[in-house]
From TrEMBL:
GO terms for biological process: L-tryptophan biosynthetic process. It comes from the Bacteria. GO terms for molecular function: 4-amino-4-deoxychorismate synthase activity. Residues 93-334 form the Chorismate-utilising enzyme C-terminal domain. InterPro entries: ADC_synthase (IPR005801), Anth_synth_I-like (IPR019999), Chorismate_C (IPR015890). It holds the Pfam family Chorismate_bind. SUPFAM superfamilies: ADC synthase. This is p-aminobenzoate synthetase.
């Protein structure tokens, strides 16, 4: 078992390996209360069954909790080369577009305002999954990258999205909504700004459930950040809370940016339209140092593997004025960095 983190999780450069004390597999968010930090936490999207009281597709995923003794610097081994072969996607481009049309019909009926629609890509890996993680990071450095290797599967995350960060009694979320190849395109898109505002409002709502009355505010709105293969737009929502981690997760999970509005109905429609379980993708993972100090990412840009088989997920937020072709192009754009990770030999 191994946990490797980008140093940005700890406010540092380089990479660090978590010194593991013990691993636990939990069935309920409430079980988290039994453990004393520090620990690394991985909450599958499928735990939405508990927080939203819904039945959705799942493969029996558990919350993963790794108790930690500390961290030590980790130097990646020299690259020997890995290769990723794309075996195919669960949904063809035409099937993905048809589902976008179905979502727009739900929007027209007033069921929802926005839905995040995902596709799942299957890859065959030749080489080391750990090396693939480092290649993925070099293809697109992000603040919330990690590699978790267990006995029978592994998780590679290249997430740049903050779900929840708590420092003292201040809690923040930075939902991402808005993607483009060029910064100007993103800044001038009324559709992307409207979508971002919708999700920001959802996070205000979610944080408002656990925050002191009157303490919720939007610190940033429509901020664009550059990454190697694309640009993203995010906003920042802040509140003041004295609630516990389990109380906070129970009120805010799953992340609004990867579901839609309103959340419960969006998750129902997602389960209807996506012919696979999201598993840990679109869940949350991160470090918990204490009840007052934790950082949790949204598990976007995340692959789940068993041996030489990996599943990588990518999706888009669909609204009434979404254009099927453009959304499908955006979905493929989000796979680009992962493909690069499997076709290049990086010099370390």
């Amino acid at each position: 078992m191994k946990l490797i983190l980008a140093g940005t999780w700890l406010g540092k450069g380089g990479f660090f390996e978590g010194i593991l004390k013990s691993m636990h597999f939990l069935s309920s968010i409430q079980d988290i209360k039994k453990f004393t930090p520090p620990f690394f936490l991985l909450v599958p999207y499928t735990l939405s069954t508990q927080t939203l009281e819904l039945e959705i597709k799942n493969e029996g995923e558990k919350i993963i909790l790794a108790e930690l003794v500390g961290f030590k610097p980790y130097n990646p081994k020299k690259s020997s080369g890995v290769e990723l072969k794309l075996k195919g996607a669960i949904l063809s481009d035409e099937e993905y577009k048809e589902r976008i049309k179905k979502i727009k019909k739900y929007i027209e009926k007033g069921d929802v305002y926005q839905i995040n629609l995902t596709n799942r890509f299957e890859f065959e890996l030749k080489g080391s999954s750990e090396e693939l993680f480092f290649n993925f990071y070099e293809a697109q450095p992000v603040p919330f990258a990690f590699y978790l290797e267990l006995e029978d599967f592994y998780v590679i995350s290249g997430s740049m999205e903050l779900f929840l960060e708590k420092k003292g009694n201040v809690i923040r979320s930075k939902p991402i909504k808005g993607t483009a190849k060029e910064e100007k395109t993103l800044l001038l898109s009324e559709k992307e700004r409207a979508e971002n505002l919708m999700i920001t409002d959802m996070m205000r709502n979610d944080i408002g459930r656990i925050a002191r009355t009157g303490s919720v505010e939007v610190e940033e709105l429509f901020k664009v950040e550059k990454y190697r293969t694309l640009y993203h737009m995010h906003s920042t929502v802040k509140g003041i809370t004295d609630k516990s981690l389990s109380e906070i997760l129970s009120s805010t999970f799953p992340p609004a940016s990867v579901t839609g509005a309103p959340k419960r109905r969006a998750v129902e429609i997602i389960d209807e339209l996506e012919p696979f379980s999201r598993s840990y993708y679109c869940g949350s993972g991160g470090l918990v140092f204490s009840e007052e100090d934790f950082t949790l990412s949204v598990l976007i840009r995340t692959a789940i593997g068993r041996g030489d088989r990996l599943y990588y997920y990518a999706g888009c937020g669909i609204v009434w004025d979404s254009v099927e072709e453009r959304e499908t192009e955006e979905m493929h754009l989000k796979v680009e960095a992962f493909k690069r990770a499997g076709s290049l030999v990086f010099q370390r």
